[in-house]
Amino acid sequence: MTASETVIDFRELIAPVFYPVHRDIVKNGHTYYDLYGGRGGLKSSFISLEIILGMMKDKEANAVIFRKYGVTLRESVYEQILWAIDVLGVSHLWETGVSPMQCVYLPTGQKIVFRGLDKAKKTKSIKVSQGYFKYLWFEELDEFQGPEEIRTVQQSILRGGEKFVVFKSFNPPITNANWANQYVNEPRNDSYRHKSCYLDAPPEWLGRQFIDDAEHLKEVNERAYQHEYLADLQEIHAKMAPERMALKQKWDAAQKRWQEDQREFKGDEHYFAREKVRYLDAQEEYKNSVKELQRRTQEEIQAVQAEYEKHVTDFYAANGNRLDDGVVRLLNSGIKLTDAEIDGMVNQNTGNPTMLRLISDHCEKMGIENQNARVFGSFARKAGSDERDAFKTIADMVKKAVSEDETTSSVWSKEESHFKRLSDQQIGAMGAFWVKPEAPQTQTAE
């Protein structure tokens, strides 16, 4: 039985959000297909189905699938390919094994091979006797060292055929500085970019528990960009400081009028007494208004602080949902890791305190001296003390702007004041924090 003899409605196996991608592949629209987005976006399911069905329809097509670390292949992409073979109902047409790790299409001898990319130069040894490597898949793209490493592999593999399909899939790291995030934002005419997440999958495919967990994580990280909280403090200042200045101006006018009344009506006891009462009322109103302004300012600061504290606590707390399964398996594999390999793990997890602590603890336990692991692990264990200090510094400046002390409030409430300069400096300094979350990735399909 061949693919043409197997009756399959492909639309029942892939999520509707991937229909346009499938049509583009069928039309040979692009060479590169960059699929990214959150967990549960069905990226790997779609790619594995495309490879199996595509190979069964093209007797010249072979496939090679890469992960950065070979130890992660078996429980990720290899299992994913076995799933695709099974769901297509063609298990009897494929021979699978792990030594060597490959899948062979029995009618023609076409192969799917799996490799860990310890060194990009190793790809030169990958050969097939039938056809050429039409399909190339880089899973967890962000794990690789960068575009140069990917380019080296492509130059070695993409030979001997007329049409190639290169898949690159990953969950965008929280840090925007990661090379994979920058890569998908660079326009390329030969690339088809597609973003998906669990919201694009039929709910029954994922299950209720997955969706509930995903919704909780979405709620926790809704404002993961910490600068937003400090910007909220700037907005509070922008709203409250002018009120404080207006109150002072009103009080200054009342004081000036009272001074003039004292000079002009000093001999008129009746008028003098009436104006003194008006002055004392203005003084009482001023004091009460300042206190009310302080109360409202403090209330708004506390509301932002409560949300900020929750965010910082959740971000730094050990969280199993943030474990990188590939790195965890590698750490537990017993393989002696090099400094460069540990540096790579740290660099891809700079926005993940859970993983940084895990990597640092592993190095300490194994007696491995790695500066990056030690430094980043130390910052992760500070659990947000720097972020809290930054928030308190700006919040204290906002409070000074509405102080009852007129000299203090005058200095800190002016539009072009110390506040603007110093709060901007504080926010800018957060960009240099070693461990930090950055702008959350948009989790909708494009």
Task: Explain briefly what this protein structure is.
With 446 residues, the protein is α/β, with parallel strands linked by helices.
- Fraction of residues in H or I helices: 40-55%
The H-level CATH homologous superfamily of the largest domain, spelled out, is P-loop containing nucleotide triphosphate hydrolases
Give the distance, in angstroms, between the N- and C-terminal Cα atoms: 37 Å
- Average pLDDT reading: 82
Low-confidence runs (pLDDT<50, min 5 residues)?
219-225, 438-446
How many beta-strand runs?
A: 8
CATH topology label of the largest domain: Rossmann fold
What is the correct CATH architecture of the largest domain? 3-Layer(aba) Sandwich
Query: From the alpha-carbon coordinates, what is the Rg to the nearest angstrom?
Result: 31 Å
Pattern of helices and strands: HEHEHEEEEHEHEHHHHHHHHHHH
- Count of alpha/pi helices: 16
Number of domains: 2
Q: Under the CATH scheme, which class of the largest domain?
A: Alpha Beta
Structural class by secondary-structure content: alpha/beta
Shape: elongated
Describe the structure.
There is one protein chain. The chain is an alpha/beta fold and 446 residues long. The protein folds into 2 domains: 3-220, P-loop containing nucleotide triphosphate hydrolases (Rossmann fold, 3-Layer(aba) Sandwich); 227-318 and 385-430, no CATH class. The chain contains 16 helices and 8 strands. The chain has an 8-stranded mixed beta sheet with strand order 3-4-5-2-6-7-1-8, sandwiched between helices. Strand 4 (101-105) and strand 5 form a beta hairpin. Helix 8 (227-264) packs antiparallel against helix 16 (418-430). The chain is elongated, with a radius of gyration of 31 Å.
